């Protein structure tokens, strides 16, 4: 290529920028799969208002908090779950000393089973609920505002995407409801 004295600085500048861009790309690729994961606006979580939450009349309050945060309600039912159903739901805890008491508590009255969809629904859902032990839950969380004892902590939320999908299938074998969430365009970019 013929470089005149005027075009030479421009050529070197372009060359340098291209080299830098290639080097940056190489660095990103060589770092493996460090490309940030795409946020999933359609992540789903299973949230349940336990028998104490239903009896204490805070179903609306709990649902309100998920609605106002921007999550989309895609399934909801009031159900008095059977012991085998609850044992299946909590099967990971079957060896814990509190398991029989937990099943008795969960079977003592109806629960409200719900599924919510939205950005980071599983993790954010548990943040809205608070920690397992209400005494350690921050004020502003559901357990931090409405509960004191770990064995009466008013709500359940899935702890992983995988468990959320399992729980949704267990509680809603008929499937969830498909519809357009008109507020979504004002909640997501
Ligand atoms: P999580 O509900 O916050 O996910 P897990 O450890 O999965 O907590 O326990 C399930 C449920 O079992 C709790 O929400 C609570 O109702 C009950 N539970 C957990 N630990 C205890 C305990 O030490 N004593 C009595 N009940 C417990
Ligand atoms: Mg759990």
Structure description:
By secondary structure, this protein is α+β, with helices and mostly antiparallel strands. Helix content is 42%, strand content 14%. It has helices spanning 8-30, 51-55, 59-69, 83-89, 99-106, 121-129, 142-146, 161-171, and strands at 43-49, 72-79, 111-118, 155-157. Strands 2-3-1-4 form a four-stranded antiparallel beta sheet. The longest helix is centred in the N-terminal third of the chain and has 23 residues, at 8-30. It is elongated and about 85 Å long. The protein starts with 7 loop residues before the first helix and ends in an 18-residue tail after the last helix. Inosine-5'-diphosphate binds at residues 93, 98, 102, 132, 150-151, 153, 156, 159.
Strand order of the largest sheet: 2-3-1-4
H/E order of the elements? HEHHEHHEHHEH
Radius of gyration, whole Å:
25 Å
Shape: elongated
Total beta strands: 4
The biggest beta sheet reads: 4 strands, antiparallel
Count of helical stretches: 8
Class inferred from helices and paired strands: alpha+beta
Distance between the termini: 46 Å
Bound molecules: inosine-5'-diphosphate, magnesium ion
What amount of the residues lies in strands?
A: 5-15%
Low-confidence stretches: none
Mean pLDDT: 90
How much helicity do the residues have? 40-55%
Short description:
The chain contains eight helices and four strands, in the order H-E-H-H-E-H-H-E-H-H-E-H. The chain is of the alpha+beta class and 189 residues long.
